[in-house]
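Honest question from a wet-lab person: if I give you the sequences of every part of a complex, can you actually get the arrangement of the whole thing, not just the pieces? Trying it with mine:
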Amino acid sequence: MSVVIESMLTAGLAALAAGVLWLLGWRLRRAHALLSALGVSVGFAVLYWRVQGRPDFPPIDATQWVFWHALFALPIGWLAGIAPAYRWVWVWGALLGVLWLFVPPFRPLMESGFWSLTAGVGYIVGFALATWLLMTLTAPLGEERGIATPLLMALLGGVSAGVLFYGAKSASLAQLSGTLGAVIGIGVPLAFLSGFTVGRGAIALTMLLYLSLWTTAFGFAQLTLGQLAVLYLLALTPAMRLLPALQRQSPVVRFALPLAIVLVVGGAAVGISYSAYMAQGGDYYSY
Amino acid sequence: MRKQTRWMAYLSIVAMLVGSLQSVQAQPVTYRIDPVHSFIIFRVKHLNTGFAYGRFNTFSGTIVVDEKNPANSSIELEIDANSIDTGNSQRDDHLRSPDFFSARQFPKITFKSTRVRKINDTTVEVQGDLTMRGVTRPITARVTLTGKGRNQRGQEIIGFETTFTIRRSQFNINYGLNGGLADEVRVTFAVEGIRQ
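Yes, you can. This is the full assembly:
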């Protein structure tokens, strides 16, 4: 089976798993917060298993923590779903939870001497704060109806796959990022169902997993801090739709502006990564 | 009579010297791996078509040779995973990435022998633990003595060579197994050691 067909099959299976759980959450409103996050959790676990194989626990290879993040972060995703009613639980519970998630993957880089202790602690705290902030700002998008949010987040997966492929030079992290986009992208056709929303938990957990993949690429592959910052700013773009200034605009403008930014800035980021990749050594290498 | 006694004394001193020299030769001898004259190369099949070759440029280690009792011989080797060189910098970066060696987390590949068994005068079978990407697996290789001599500095040198095959999937290096790159990797280690 060709790599392309296998990737499509993987993405399809993962999206199907997420879609079924979201539909269930849509019908069972009382379980919506949990099933919204569970859809992403199960979808990502399915795609990881197919792309990378069965991970160890605890992982010897620190990049395998990405898989366990999908499962261990499920309570955080669920918490994002009920956050409006439990603001302080979200602030402290989610923040400490994310901080706890980021310690095990990056500890080996301090142990191997690649990062100094100070730098390592700084990165871990920085990643946790940035992830929590992103989740907080974007989670409310999960309550919006329509295709805008799942489409923007799916595009984010495609853009980051390109940057990880050419910038970080890791095909597997790129594949995971791209197929995570496909998982959240199943929300696009589902959005045509009357009253359907993916839920706050799905958005928050997807953002956490994107950050988990990108920071892994920064720590263990060759993603630069600049490329990581660009991806982070792009991830914030969908939240523009919630700005009061944009909420006064027409639905077309609210959809088109963040879409244009993701396409133009994201396209430029992929283009720059590709050019730098091709310029390196001047010799072409196909994976 | 006195002359005869003196000669006997001389002879016994010479005999003692020869004897002690022989016992020195019988002791295990330690050689430091000379990285300039040693090579670690590997090959793996690409797209089930042609072989791709590569090497590691930076490594160090010691070889202990006990000719009288080969079971006392040993080898320890430490390879810098970041020194991988396949003649293409983009491919080398990819090989250092988490898809393959994840060299930031696992910067060293190590081998430590656990058993050496003599096969014939020039060949031994070496068993040992190869650690790569955090996974340790036992491997066995037949090592051939390729020569002994002295270098330009007058130091005693010794040469060995071995070729063996490993399965990279056993070390959790699974990228591209579905037809892209073969699981089997043939490794050749040609070494020259300098006596310490």
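Two things worth pointing out. The mean pLDDT of chain B is 89. Residues 60 and 171 of chain B are 21 Å apart (CA to CA).
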